[in-house]
Amino acid sequence: MENTITEQNGISLFFKNNLGILITILCLILMPFVISLIDGQSIPSLLANESGQSKFYQGLAIEIFILAVFALSYDLLFGFTGLLSFGHAMFFGVGAYLTGIMLKSFGWTLLPILALLVLAGILMALIFSIVLPRVKGITFALVTLGIAQVFYIVIQSREMADYAGAEIGLQGVTPPEFLNPIEHRLRFYYIGLVILFAVYFLYKRFVDSPTGHVCVAIRENEDRATMLGYNTFYFKLAALTISGITATLAGGIHGIYNPIIRPAIASSHFTIAALLMILIGGIGTLSGALIGAAVFKLLSFFLEKWFGGASQVLIGLVYILLVLFLPYGIVGTIRARSFRWKQGWQRWMKILRFKQPS
Amino acid sequence: MKPLLGSFRKNRTLWITLCALIIIFTLGARGLVDNEAVGGERYQDVVITILRGFSTGSIIFLVASGFSIIFGLMNVLNMAHGALFMIGAYVGWTVFVRPDTAVDALVPILLLAGGFFLIPLWDRLLNKLKMPSWLMKTWPWLGLILASVVLIFTLPKYPITSWDVGSYQISPTNYAFAASQGQLVTPEPKQFLGISPLLGLGGILLGGLLAGITVAGFVISRRPATAGTSEGKAFPWETLSLFLAIAILGLVIHYYNTPISNFLLGLDSTLLFILAILVAVGTGALIGILVETTMIRPLYETHIYVLMLTLGVQSIIIEIVRSAWGSPEFTMHRPSIFAGTGEGCPAESLGAILKNNCSTIRVLGGRVRTYNELFIPLLGIVVLVAVWLLLQRTRLGMIVRAGVQDSEMVEALGINVQKIFTTVFALGVGLAAMGGVIGAPSTGLTTTLGDSLLINMLVALAIGGLTSYPGSAAGALIVGLLQQFVIKYGQIGINIPFMEEPFKPTPPLVPALTVFLMVIILLVMPQGLFGRKE
Using one digit for the tens of pLDDT, what is the confidence trace for B264-310? Predict the structure, then answer.
């Protein structure tokens, strides 16, 4: 009897703590239908994946999901563990290219590819970790930048052109039939949604675990964490591995979803894009990574649509303004101010109930 | 002998690493001499490759030295350095190829910049006024809107002669060639479009003033209340006179536009090249001052945000260059002193170069280009020595060196660190812009110029030690030499065991090798060759 009560408490506590996220999930589940209603598209035609506004926005949302998984992995690495890496795009790029090459040139099915991606993620994390015990801070960033740059150069080189398609990118990958992003986009949308929030809740569990707390301690003061008896290398390696596997998987989804895998996703600009996403959302907050990815993608998409060539200037300006005037990101600023808002709200409620504010 | 042994014991790893590098390069050079593909011993290949390595290294050094001093002193990782290198190259190219356009563009820039020089005056006046806080917070935004309205109205109407991106796009190479032959058709100067000159010039001046007031307002509203104000100081006459001088200079240039343009077009291209270097350095320094004072200064404490901010600046600069100059590649010809091909060329001795202005010189039977392989390394050494003297022998250099060691302590000793920061930032960016002009004749101009250089520069700094000045020189040299050796080997092929054909790396693969060297060196010496041990 007691058992059920505590379990109920646990569930209700979970609902209470994650109310915002759960509402977001609900909205995202309903989103294709709501848009099709607004657009005047019938439900059967939506389920048959006929083209329309809904399908278009599903595609946009899938891209946001992929970016959000990538941003989450970068947030774990930089926001929670404090490892500034400029080579994170390499994980994403390897994931995308491995998936594409294995599907196109070797005809593998999805499950072995999945195993391969996990292996590749672990392997790359190990490569990055060779320098981990020796260099810190900005030097680590430079080393990772260098390693990722090597991959970026190799993937574009003419020596690899038969497999990776040189500067143009990898074209002509046939995704598996049940996951075809054109014929089964709604299915793809829901699978992407499930993957994103599975990753989110797993990460939340990791961050709240003792291991996650040690990671935060390393970010705050590595010397003190070492002094307390933790071998910080293993914790950093754990964060790097988990984040690397996640980024590789995100790259894999990107490789299935996009018709052309461009080399730009392996460049340092893409790492910087992830850094921007978590800066927009708020460093060291998981929900900030989600919001940041959505804002980043929507902003660059609509600015590109409305202003065309001038959009790069505007995006640059937006970043500068964000950094100057909203330095803690969206979630960070809300968290800093929510206490004040809460106080104001309580005062209002008291006034409405004709009580004297204490 | 004894101190040498002592230093060897102290820095054993450094000496061993340096010896290993020297052995590697010697083996590489030896391999080039015994090149089987050509047959016989060819020393000239080695000499030319080493000179090219010095040349590439000099360009990297010009950019890396500024970057490393800025990083060491201010802890600012200026990712826009590559883009500033690029803008230096483009500005220099414009002055060199189209001096008339440069003169036209100078006027609005001077008029705009004049307003920014008045910031200390506004600062003082606003402190005197003691406005209510809500007004203090809102009016800079009002100023921003007003300034942008005025500038949007007047700036596009300012006539800049023959800034015809379309004609470059047809054939930029032909265009540059025609310019170097002096066959350029310069159109008549245009007039103001639709508004009277007085209104146009006044509008730009007013826009500059409003922008200056806006910046002053933002600076005041973000300044903590405890920080010292400029209260009690003498009236800033010098800023007022500076503003007047700049505004009058701008007006004079506008009035005498045609004679100045004709004078510049008639100049020898060597003089124009020197002018281009000066203008590019000035532009770089101005941009540096502007970026440092308005954007980086409020964010000193949060380094990661400064990083993002410089990335934003970088993307804006690249986009401005792309819209103003277009995306095609440009070539820049060498100044006349290095371009002679007539009688007596290629020169046999150093004296003959000066006599005939030869573009090439004969060394050991091979041809060496005087500009690329002699002038650039020479200039790199000159800058190396000049900045070293500046750092070691002047008061500014002393403060900078102390600041690299411990910037808080310097501040505590009562030195105005902010002024030093601005100077150093301007100096670093100016050096990068200079590197852009110097490198332009050998590399050409593209909008992606900055990206590849930034990677090379970061690799060079990681090898040499991030905050060390000699380290930046050594790292740049190592990266330059390694790149040129790999390129040279790429032409003849490397015999790798277990492979049938010799491996010929394509030029894009070259940076990959320097990265490998960086990882190896950082594994042996995590702080770089000359970096400070923690």
Answer: 777 777 888 898 999 999 999 988 988 888 778 777 767 777 887 88
Q: What's the rounded Cα separation, in Å, for the pair A230 and A211?
A: 10
3-state secondary structure of B196: coil
Q: Determine contact: A161 vs chain B, CB below 8 A.
A: no
The answer to whether A266 touches A92, Cβ cutoff 8 Å, is yes
> For the segment A148-184, what is each residue's pLDDT rounded down to a tens digit?
888 888 888 777 777 777 778 888 787 877 777 777 8
Give pLDDT < 70 ranges for chain B.
Answer: 1-3, 32-42, 159-195, 222-234, 301, 340-357, 364-366, 493-508, 533-534
Please list, in sequence order, all residues whose beta carbon lies within 8 angstroms of the beta carbon of residue A116, skipping any fewer than 6 positions away.
A98, A102, A108
| Lookup: tokens for A192 | 């992407």
Residue A120 confidence (pLDDT): 93
Alpha carbon distances (Å) from B255 to A150, B197, B325, B389:
54, 10, 26, 41
User: Which residues of chain B have a CB within 8 Å of the CB of A131?
Assistant: 519, 522-523, 526
Per-window interface: A 255-314 vs B, CB < 8 A:
272, 275-276, 279, 283, 309-310, 312-313
| Section A44-66 average pLDDT | 82
Contact call for A313 and B461, based on CB within 8 A: no
Structure tokens, B251: 């007006």
Q: Report the alpha-carbon distance of residue B391 to residue B402 in Å, rounded.
A: 10
Per the CB < 8 Å rule, is B519 touching A319? no
Partnered with residue B494 across adjacent β-strands are: B503
Residue corresponding to tokens 């414009």: B94
Q: What is the DSSP string of B68-135?
A: HHHHHHH----TTHHHHHHHHHHHHHHHHH-HHHHHHHHHHHHHHHHHHHTHHHHHHHHHHH---HHH
Tell which A residues from 55 to 114 touch B, by Cβ distance under 8 Å.
84
In which element (H, E) is residue B449 found? helix B449-464
DSSP B188: P
Cis peptide before B346 (omega within 30 of 0): yes
Q: DSSP letter at A267?
A: S
pLDDT in tens, A102-127: 888 888 888 888 999 999 999 999 98
| C-alpha distance across the termini of chain B, in Å | 29
Q: What was the ipTM of the complex prediction?
A: 0.76
* Closest by Cα among A300, A336, A294, A304 to A319: A300
Tens of pLDDT, residues B344-367: 666 666 666 666 667 777 776 667
pLDDT in tens, B74-128: 888 888 898 999 999 999 988 887 777 778 788 888 888 888 778 777 777 777 7
Q: Is B148 exposed, middle or buried (0-12, 13-18, 19+ CB in 10 A)?
A: middle
B contacts of A142 (beta carbons < 8 Å): 458-459, 461-462, 518
User: What residues are paired with B445 via a beta bridge?
Assistant: B330
What digits encode the pLDDT tens for the residues A271-313?
888 988 888 888 888 888 999 999 889 988 888 888 776 677 7
d(CA A289, CA B116): 38
Burial (CB < 10 A; 0-12, 13-18, 19+), residue A254, is buried
- Nearest-Cα distance to chain B for A181, in Å, is 32
State the Cα–Cα distance between residues B254 and B258, nearest whole angstrom. Answer: 9
For chain B, the structural domain boundaries read 1-54+457-534, 90-166+194-225+235-302, 329-392
Interchain CB contacts (distance < 8 Å): A and B: 113
Return the structure tokens found at B172: 């930029």
Residue B201: the pLDDT is 79
SS3 assignment, position B531: coil
